[in-house]
Every structure is written in structure tokens, then in C-alpha cells.
Amino acid sequence: MAHSGINVLFEGTNLTRLLLGMWTTFKIAAVAIIIGLIIGIILGILRTFHNPILRFVLRIYLEFFRIVPTVVLLFLFYYILPRQMNLHMPGTQVAMLVFSLWVAAEMSDIVRGALISVPIHQKESGLAIGLNKFQLYRYVLVPQAVQLELPATINLITRVIKTTSLLMLISVMDVVNIGQQIVEANNQKYPTGVFWIYGLIFLLYFLIDYPLSWWAGRLEKKRLEQTNGE
Amino acid sequence: MANEVLKVEHLDKYYQKKHVLHDINFTISKGEVITLLGPSGSGKSTLIRCLNGLEDFRNGEITFEGKKVIPNEKNWQQLRQKIGMVFQSYDLFPNLTVLENILLGPTKVQKRNVDEVKQEVDKLLQKVDLLDYKDAYPRQLSGGQKQRIAIIRALALHPEFMLFDEVTASLDPEMVRGVLNIIQDLADEDNMTMIIVTHEMNFAQQIADRVLFLKDGNILEDTSGKEFFKNPKTDQAQEFLQSMNF
Ligand SMILES: Nc1ncnc2c1ncn2[C@@H]1O[C@H](COP(=O)(O)OP(=O)(O)OP(=O)(O)O)[C@@H](O)[C@H]1O
Ligand SMILES: [Mg+2]
User: Fold this and answer.
1) What whole-number distance in Å separates Cα of residue A15 and Cα of residue A11?
2) Does domain B4-92+162-243 have CATH number 3.50.50.60?
3) How many Å apart are CA B146 and CA B89, to the nearest integer?
4) Fold of the domain built from segment(s) A5-223
5) How far is the alpha carbon of A134 from chain B, nearest alpha carbon, in Å?
6) Is the pLDDT of residue A227 over 70?
7) In chain B, what residues touch A120 (CB-CB under 8 Å)?
8) Which of A67, B137, B160, B217 is the most buried (most CB within 10 A)?
9) At residue A228, does pLDDT exceed 60?
10) Is the CB–ligand 1 distance for residue B38 below 6 Å?
11) What is the SS3 assignment for B168?
């Protein structure tokens, strides 16, 4: 074999392009996570209020983003809605929007779950020292909920990062899309190039996601140890 | 009565269809200590929770320091700064240190000066021998220590009136005394107005100016502490005291 497959990575600007693709992926994920988490926390808090209309609307929002597959959401926002509403957004922005809304929906459920699992005594002893509703959430319920929910939040983040691999479907030049292009362009010269390209993509995803999921696991373990020690 | 702190008139409480408090009437004057006694399920917790708005009630009126309480969340939030309450379960906030737990009410609710409050809290902690635990988290404390801090957290708001709901019931026996002593000191030194639910009969007898005996949601006796423990009038009260080995 004249060419070893691994050299496909170093041919021309291939490596830089792949890393740039990864950067795009990372940017989209980061924006979606930050915006999504902030909105999600607010929605999660609102979902613990007793207003039935509010709860119903937010519930529908959650179920919509949970039931509809992300691919369909991406198509919907990239191909269908713009045509109906006559507004054009580049794929990167559509991706950020869709992912933010999705993260917000999932996060609202995580936050709500954590808030309602803070013991009722905590709420009552907060009220008993005269805290108002805002202070109760701000100083007592939310900080405790955050601690409970942190592992689930990190897991959500790893899922978001993984799901960014769908971005090529709406023509975002993410790492998978660029990888695919490189594979196709070099198919003749490097028949085994596909393994190396995807191998590298695998490695990049792994390097981001693995530490996160390790961290989530460790937090969960620590929390269990702590509650057992109570 | 000029120095009447709290007056309860014709209060009824239902949980859904279940009638748990029947036409409750009593008053408590400044500096008076009432122990609220009665068998399990008689409605003691429900009653004192009604007195600081943690439970709503169907009929009846509560008057606090001469003013009729209009029972809405905003009024209760104001009143709870004057009506301290400590519960059976240790419910310090686990995300905050001892000091932060205590400062929360005075500084965030009452917006008092942090340094001033801190000085005062130091004194209170010193008094109950817990100054060294100022920066500890609740999980590092024993049950008795937690309960003493919970009392101080309530006192830091300068309440006019304190409610205690079986604050020693989940403590190991050797921890009980320390907590009861604090309550006793409140009566002796600060002349604090209090309603105390307890199953420590010796303590109840010692501290009570008055006893309310509750059974199935009815106040069956409202009498002086001496009288109640010496000559309980109703059969139910006699039975109750017997069951407590008293
Ligand atoms: N949240 C609730 N929902 C429905 N019923 C309740 C609720 N809380 C209390 N009850 C009922 O109300 C009655 C009075 O209960 P409460 O807790 O006030 O009694 P207690 O005198 O404090 O008893 P204990 O000595 O066991 O603490 C009981 O029959 C109880 O089952
Ligand atoms: Mg009770």
C-alpha cells in the first residue's frame, strides 16, 4: 500500500478543517447549553408554582421538545418554518436556537424535579423565619435543588454535545460534515481514510464528553455517600 | 386585656372533609407559657401551625397584639418575624453554615445591619456553647446541636412570641436536656410568651403557666399547669396523664 490511511489527516489543510469543524460544533453546543440552562432554570421554577395555566403551557412545551426527535426539530426550524414565515437564518443559528429550546425544556424538568424533592420542612422553616417567596427560592430551595440536579445537568450536557453530530443534516459545517467531505474527496487516494477521519472525530467527542460524564458519576457517588452519612 | 398577645376565636380546621380542629378558643398574655398537651393525632401540630399561617383554617379569627389577622400570605410573612417557630425535625438549611442560617432572617428579611446582627448572634451562640460551630455546616452537628441552632435562628428575629412543636421528640435522650434548658431560660430570663407542644411531662409541668389539653381536635381543658397535673378534670386528661406514666 503506497499510502497509509493515517496520512489523510495531514493531507493539505484537512486537520485544520476538522479542528475548525469541531470548534463550530463546540460553539453551538456551548451557546445552546448556556442559554438553555438559564431559560430552563427559570421555567423549572415557574413549573413549581400553582398557577394551572402556566403549568399547562410549560408542560406542553416540555412534551413537544421531548417527543419530537431532534432531527425533525432541526428540519422544522431550518426548512419548514423559514419558508412559512419568510425569515432566513443560517444553519448555525438555527442549530443554536433549536438546541437552546431543547435544553431549556429538558432542564426545566430536571429543575422542577429537584425543587419538588427538596423536603417540605425546608420550605416551611424558610417561611417560618419570614422569607418571602422570592427569598425562599433564592436562598433555600434553588441552592439545594442545584446540588441535587447537578449530575443530571451534566448528563444533559453530554447528550447535547453528542447530538450535535446531527448538525450536518441542516448543512452546518460541523466536524462530522467536514469529515464526510474529506472522506469523499480522498476516497481514491486513501481507501481506509474513513476509519482515520471518524476515528479522530470519535476521539474529539470522547475527549469532551468523557470527563463530563466522569464528573457526573463522581458527584452522584459523593451525594449518595453524603446522604447515607446523614 | 391590655397585654394579650394572641387571641383565637372559634377556629375550625378541616383537611378536605376531615374536621381536625373544633371551635378553638383561647388567649395568651404577654410572658405566659402555655403547654399544649394531648394524645397523638389530637391536632396539636395543626393548631400551632395555624397560628403562624402554615395552615389555613376555615372559620374563626386570630388576633395578634390587638390586631385582627387578615389571613393572606403577605400578612403572614410580616407576622412570622414576630412569631417564631421551631419544629420537631431539624430543619436547618443544609446549604448554609450555622452562621448563615441564623443571619438569613435578620439580614435578608429584616434588613438589619450585618455586623450588628453578627455581634448579637455571637452572644447567643456563646450562651448555648456553640460559638465554635459558627462556620460548620448542619451535617457536621448532632441533633441536639442542630435544634439549639434552630432555636437561635428563630430568636435572632427578635420574636414576640414563640411556638415549639415537639422540638426534642427526635433527639437522643442525652441531648434533650440542653434544648429544654434553652426554652426554660427563655421563660425565666426573657419572659418570652410561648406555646409549647411536648411529650416531656416533667418539663411541661415545670414550665407551664397554663395547659391546654387537646383531644380529637377539641380543647377539653384550659387550666393552670398546677391544676392540670394535680387535678385533671376530664377522664380523657386523666387517661392521657396515665398513659404518659405521670
Ligand atoms: N396534611 C394532612 N392531611 C390530612 N390530614 C392531616 C394532615 N396533617 C394532619 N392530619 C390529621 O389531622 C389530625 C391532627 O394531626 P396533628 O399532626 O395536628 O396531630 P398531633 O396532635 O400533632 O399528633 P402528634 O402528637 O402525633 O404529632 C390527625 O388526625 C392527622 O391524621
Ligand atoms: Mg404533632
Assistant:
1) 8
2) no
3) 10
4) MetI-like fold (1.10.3720)
5) 11
6) no
7) none
8) B217
9) no
10) yes
11) coil
Record the pTM.
Answer: 0.84
Handedness of CA B97, B103, B109, B112 (dihedral sign): negative
Task: State in Å: Cα A36 to ligand 2 middle.
Answer: 43
What does the alpha-carbon distance between residue B172 and residue B166 come to, in Å, rounded to a whole number?
13
Q: Using a CB-CB distance cutoff of 8 angstroms, which residues of chain A are in contact with residue B153?
A: 129
Q: How far apart are CA A138 and CA A142, in angstroms?
A: 6
With 60 as the cut, is the pLDDT of residue B162 above it?
yes
pLDDT of A229 over the 60 cut: no
A39 conformational bin, left if phi > 0, alpha if psi -120 to 50, beta if neither: alpha
Q: H or E stretch including B26?
A: strand B18-29
What cell does A204 get?
A: 474529539
Q: What share of chain B is helix, strand, coil (3-state, %, to 5)?
A: 40, 25, 35
Query: With contacts defined as CB-CB under 8 Å, which chain A residues touch B154?
Result: 128-129
Contact B55/B15 with Cβ under 8 angstroms?
no
Shortest Cα–Cα distance, B84 to chain A (Å): 7
Residue A2 and residue B166: Cα distance in Å, rounded? 85
> How is chain A split into domains, by residue range?
5-223
Nearest to B153 among A129, A139, A144 (CB): A129
Look up residue A38 and give its amino acid. Answer: I
Which amino acid type is present at position A107?
Answer: M
pLDDT at residue number A184: 87
pLDDT digits (tens, 9 = 90+) for B98-109: 999 999 999 999
Q: Summarize the confidence of residues A73-77 as an average pLDDT.
A: 89
pLDDT of residue A130: 95
Q: Are B30 and B162 in contact (CB under 8 A)?
A: no
Domain map of chain B by residue range?
Answer: 4-92+162-243
pLDDT at B208 over 50: yes
- Whether B15 lines ligand 1, by a CB cut-off of 6 Å, is yes
* Better-predicted residue by pLDDT, A82 or A129: A129
**Per-residue pLDDT averaged across B142-169, rounded?**
95
Q: Which residue of A has its CA nearest to B150?
A: A125
The pLDDT tens digits of the residues spanning A167-215 come to: 888 878 888 888 888 888 888 888 888 888 899 889 988 988 888 888 8
Half-sphere exposure in the Cβ direction for B104 (13 Å, CA): 28
